[in-house]
Amino acid sequence: GNLNRTGYIQFEVLNLTNTFPPINFKILQPYPNPFNNKLTLPVYVNQRGNYVFEIYNIQGKIVDNNEKYIDNIGLNNVSINFANLSSGQYFISCKNEIRVSEIIPIILLK
Predict the structure, then answer these.
(1) How many angstroms separate the CA atoms of 109 and 53, rounded?
(2) Contact yes or no for 42/77 (Cβ under 8 A)
């Protein structure tokens, strides 16, 4: 073959960012916190779809989960009812089929 021996390797960079936009979502500070039975969780999403909100006790065990379909791109307020749980500290996260959000501490006071 015909090789140019310059000591450099030539390659082409492909830009795929416009083809496959990342699915991003973020939990903002829930309110009120502490709360009594009902918590409002602001969530920013850039794609519509099913999101699962998992509630963990202080031992790290999942004690409840709520699946919500979010149809609005941007900021959404998701309400979650904690009537079936007793007072105490919990943690909440949001996940979809690709990733899990940060885990946010919350306090339930009845």
Answers:
(1) 20
(2) yes
- Residues 6 or more apart whose CB falls under 8 angstroms from that of 101 comprise 25, 26, 27, 93, 94, 95
How does pLDDT run across 7-39, given as a tens digit for each residue?
A: 666 656 655 555 555 668 899 999 999 999 999
d(CA 71, CA 54): 19
Query: For residue 101, what are its two tokens?
Result: 């959000």
68: closest CA among 80, 52, 56? 52
Other beta carbons within 10 angstroms of residue 99's beta carbon come to: 11
Q: Which residues of the chain have pLDDT under 50?
A: 1
Check if the beta carbon of residue 81 is closer than 8 Å to that of residue 89: no
Please check whether residue 106 is in contact with residue 32, taking contact to mean a CB–CB distance below 8 angstroms.
no
Question: CA–CA separation, 48 vs 69, rounded Å?
Answer: 7
